[in-house]
Amino acid sequence: MSGASSFGGLLRFRTAVPRMAVGVAALLGAMSFLGAWWLIVALHVVAPIFLPSPATVARAFWTMCADGVAMPNALISISRVWSAFLLSAIIAVPLGILMSGYRIIGAFLEPLIDFIRYLPVPALVPLAIIWFGVGEETKIFLLWLGTFFQLVLMVAADMKRVPGEYFETAYTLGAKPRQTLGTVALPAMLPQLMDSMRISLGWCWTYVIIAEIVASDSGLGFVIWTARRFMKTDQVMAGVIMIGLIGLLTDQCLRLLHRFLFRYQSS
Amino acid sequence: MSNTLGNTGSMPDQAGAYLRFESVTKTFGAVPVVQEPFSLDIPAGQFVVFLGPSGCGKTTLMRMIGGLDTPSSGRILLQGQPVGGPDIRRGMVFQSYSSFPWLSVRKNVEFGMRFRRDMTKAQKRERAGYFLDLVGLSDFASSYPSRISGGMRQRVAIARTLAADPDVLLMDEPFGALDANLREDLQYELRKIQKKSGKTTIFVTHDVEEAVFLADRIIVFGSRPARVMADMDILSMVGPVRDETLRDSERFFHIRTDILHLLRGRLREAGQEGA
């Protein structure tokens, strides 16, 4: 009776549920996915060469880690992602702040950036290869292209969202407009800014795989693509899962860092 | 209208004017915000409340003192000098986003002296301590604004502005977002602090009771069209002492009622014109 009513409570619209229920639900979600996967394979709905069982994929994952294929290639991908991302951020953050701080700079750059950011990165791969060959520059360039223009606009929006009262307060305390950049704008927008960067880091992961599939002889994208050529579906899936895990881990670490750095926000 | 609203005569002019509006108007684009030229002389140390409904231009007039908006015509003089852009001589306290969430209470107050070069770090710290004490927040010096109440956050902003030592204190409905009890407490404290510091203060509100409790003088604004309806010498009506007995007194009640009638009459007229 009471059980029924508390289960009903879990389905109440826009209402918080106990922490315990959240954990159980997450676990059930993951397990039902694995269960469905396993069931499809066990019932021979799809041939194993197209869809290997979860256990086979797990074994492939383990083998890839053990025989020294996964880690070096993962590190290569990670370093590509981070160098391109940092290169983006170093230019995008000051530029975005300037675009919003000085509206004329924004008016000058925004239409151009809006145009470029709608160009799909894969469409630019041929151009990148013509310009840079198939070396490391091509990959960094593609990743940078995919994130920079998005990030600039997000930074500009983060800056625009800083309440005018903060600036005006600083002015009436004797600050010159330029002085408010470091003392007001940056600290006020920092939590949002870090979220924007975290999101664009995620896009970097998307593009690094594309870049490595098209023009590379290393990295996780290359590993997956090579496995595909030999129809080693279990390795392809293991590689994909590894990318997902790295992304998840990075994201969680950055969220933790966010919570730590901006603990003044929560009550 | 009752006698409390009778024109109390203008305050001492010329020599006594510390802050002066000279035929100030303001138009944003094609929209007139302060249409009728506004003139006013404010002597040093006076607590002036701009009272009126939203859209009457009271906030704009105050922002122009702060240099955050510029008059379309006319000028504003502080000690005989026309005011320019915002600077440390005219401090402002807002209703929302008044304290910086990324700084501790103490750092917020020290921010008032952040851009002063004539003080050492130790001097700034000491002065911040004094004003924290004045607004009763010494025990919360190391807390962040998100951990303290809305009323405390407004006190942080007041302490920060006072620490900057401006000539004029500008307040834009600073207690507007607080609940009634807290509001009354803060009004009481603000009045005391203002008298103690002797800062010429312009306080904007639409709350009649708040205005009467705080003010030496109230400028009552009406909207549609925006204009000054009364210039009331509250100091000579109720005296300098402001406490809870005043709030319960008949005199306080009468002044409040008269102003309300004045404002409502205005609103009724505007309604009839509109119909």
UniProtKB/TrEMBL annotation, chain A:
Record-linked InterPro entries: MetI-like, MetI-like_sf
Q: Tell me which PROSITE patterns the record gives.
A: ABC_TM1
Q: Where in the cell is it found?
A: Cell membrane
Ranges annotated as spanning the membrane:
21-47, 81-103, 115-134, 140-157, 204-225, 237-257
Transmembrane listed as a keyword: yes
Gene3D superfamilies per UniProt? MetI-like
An example of a Pfam family matching this protein is BPD_transp_1
All copies of the ABC transmembrane type-1 domain together span: 74-254
Signal sequence annotation: none
Specify where it is mainly localized.
Answer: membrane
Going by the UniProt record, its keywords in alphabetical order are: Cell membrane, Membrane, Transmembrane, Transmembrane helix, Transport
**Membrane topology, from the record:** Multi-pass membrane protein
Q: Which PANTHER family match?
A: ABC TRANSPORTER PERMEASE PROTEIN MJ0413-RELATED, ALKANE SULFONATE ABC TRANSPORTER-RELATED, MEMBRANE SUBUNIT
The UniProt entry's sequence similarity note says: Belongs to the binding-protein-dependent transport system permease family.
Q: What protein does this entry describe?
A: ABC transporter permease
Native organism is Acetobacter suratthaniensis
